[in-house]
Amino acid sequence: MADFNEATTVKNVEPGIYEVEIDSSWSVGDVANGGYLVALILKAVVSESPHPHPLSTSSHFVAPPSSGPARVRVDLLRAGRTTATLRATLVQDDIPRVEALVTTSTLSHDADVEWAGPPPEPVAPVDECIPTVVDLPDGTHVGVLDHVDLRLDPQTLGWFSGRPAGQLSMRGHVRLADGTEPDPIVLPLAVDSLPPTVFGLGRLGWAPTVELTVLTRSLPAPGWLTVHLRGRLVRDGWFDEEAEVYDVTGALVAQSRQLARVRVS
Amino acid sequence: MADFNEATTVKNVEPGIYEVEIDSSWSVGDVANGGYLVALILKAVVSESPHPHPLSTSSHFVAPPSSGPARVRVDLLRAGRTTATLRATLVQDDIPRVEALVTTSTLSHDADVEWAGPPPEPVAPVDECIPTVVDLPDGTHVGVLDHVDLRLDPQTLGWFSGRPAGQLSMRGHVRLADGTEPDPIVLPLAVDSLPPTVFGLGRLGWAPTVELTVLTRSLPAPGWLTVHLRGRLVRDGWFDEEAEVYDVTGALVAQSRQLARVRVS
């Protein structure tokens, strides 16, 4: 079973072209986890970028890839002093599967917080959270949770015993099981590893993401990441999901929003 | 002075290529408003899309364009039954200026809300809000506000008289002065017409956006749009700004997030 570094290995074969291997075990059912695919793409993007850190990464999921060989094509659109902008496409069988736009920059390790809004609702400490079972209620195997150690706040776990909380909310702590410490490449995986917030409405099942944008706000300290998910609206078959991710020092390290499809039940 | 329809006219000159004219009056100082540029790009995108509505639009601002002629190049990456994905580039002098990814779909006019979270803090009614002056305190002319009728909630206007509220927050109502009713093309302009939330910290001045993602959640009813802006963190020269936009019926019609640069004062 490939660890994070192996599963996100990129091999530069031509200018701007990277060969990758989509690992079958970083998945939900048969489909690779979206956060894992974004991490894979970012490995290629930062290799081409004059700035080391993805500041904003917008990914549109065009068509689900299969596990196995694929390519990432990266185009540097502009390199500036403060930021650079890159476009990246994950291609398999000549079909674009994930299309991403990334603005990179150089984040400092020790910048002061000039202003921060009020923190969200607290999450129960790691040792009071529940290590998450790796299969969905419908039997779908969530392979990515063999790699991501996920501990969910009991208050957002009611759906598992048939008592959904009745709101779009999910909270917990994550770290990589192989010991890889968090960095801006790992963060997309952190925002996309928890069960979809619609589980809080009792809507259990796969919820395919069509778009995910992740902002890196600080370089994370080693240790657990704490993830707060919320959503605002379920309408016309679509729901939004916002994540805030904090590191062990309490620094806001990532924000994200995704739009996903909820299956008509 | 070009109205919205004129200022966002796109002319198809080759397959996937549109000639446009960036109007000098939809601007902040010398630079075109980001929401206006996104609206212009979306006009070309929906012309190429099998689905009529931009569901998620992620725009990365690569380099500021000048007013005058430019081109939008649109590539349809995939057309599916429920969604399509398109890539679009606003190019001027062979330099990409704005790069966008758009997932389109067909939103229904009368879908029920399955679930909605608690609404944000109320905004003062239109007639208690302040019609917004069109120049910034530093003298910059905000031309886009000759086109957008903006009424700001007095509670978020303290910065104008030297008493900033001390938080990333801005609230108001907007409509197009030329009588154009809101639709999914107008929505990016609505989320980007208010003063930057950092004004609430007394940080007055231009705050260039590097990335803006807008979700269309419902088709807006005719009339005023009510916009709530909030931000979570100012750190290392960057701040986030989230918008929720409601129509006159109280429906959540758009959500957005942008990452922007705050000038070191």
From TrEMBL, chains A, B:
A Pfam cross-reference name: 4HBT_3C
UniProt name for this protein: Thioesterase family protein
TM ranges: none
Domain Acyl-CoA thioesterase-like N-terminal HotDog intervals: 23-104
Residues of the Acyl-CoA thioesterase-like C-terminal domain: 135-262
Top-level taxon of the source organism: Bacteria
Gene3D superfamilies referenced in this protein's UniProt entry, alphabetically: Acyl-CoA thioesterase, double hotdog domain
Organism of this sequence: Phytoactinopolyspora halophila
Native organism taxonomy: Bacteria, Bacillati, Actinomycetota, Actinomycetes, Jiangellales
